[in-house]
Protein: SDR family oxidoreductase
Amino acid sequence: MKVFVTGASGWVGSAVVPELFAAGHEVTGFARSDASAAAVEAMGARVLRGDLDDLEALQEGALHSDGVVHLAFRHDFADFDAAVESDARAIGALGRALEGSGKPLVVTSGTPALAGQVATERDRSSGGLASGREANSDAALAFAARGVRPVVVRLPRSVHGQGDHGFVSRLIAIAGERGVAGFVGDGSARWPAVHVRDAARLYRLALEQAPAGSVLHAVGDEGVFTGDIASTIGAKLGLRVEPAAPETFGFLGALMGLDQPASSEQTRALLPWSPVEVGLLADLEAGHYFG
Structure:
């Protein structure tokens, strides 16, 4: 397949592109900057220049592809609503370009946050940051009625691995700045997690095999206690571990105290996918986050 990938040079995209190549697909990566274009070319992919506001370029990439993996998202937590709106416009443009083709459109969202309940692929978020992207997922799934094969891949709070600069890396940086590794409440809040290479395999399978309307969970660890994350960070940095106020963690504060485990049982039953890489705590123990 000729696959158009937005966010190809990003954290997850840089694992998805090699996964697609290994399966024999051709890849065109969407790149908004010279640095992103160079990274896409270094992976061996073709480059299409543009950004998420360039709807004509997005449609061009989709029209000349056999399927789309949409990973690009502006992770601006200072104006998250604007990021969600930009994503909605991009999904609409990609979907319209694929109308009537039967081609796959794989989009990205987050696992639902349901306090005290293990979220499944059938669940919806009760609020928070994930709810805005969920509405965008609904818009993507609606293209099934217009001759597209839409699939939603929900990512957990941590997509980890060597080179990760996401939430866990931020927690490590905050611990280093404060001289204390912290958690919110009693540390019993759970975060789902997945290794980036496991996530990449699921995106490929979603593109190749998932039925129209599928909602998939890229979840390896169903729920890692935030207290255990803090304890592992503290041990690796030689710092004490103690509870802290949510505001200590900036935009992560609200997530740190929210119990939000998620399952991938239905995904594993639908597709030949199961995680094979190490879990989050083992990845932290490996040391590369602290190099």
Observations:
- The longest strand covers residues 104-110.
- The chain is about 40% helix and 20% strand.
- The CA atoms of residues 162 and 291 lie 10 Å apart.
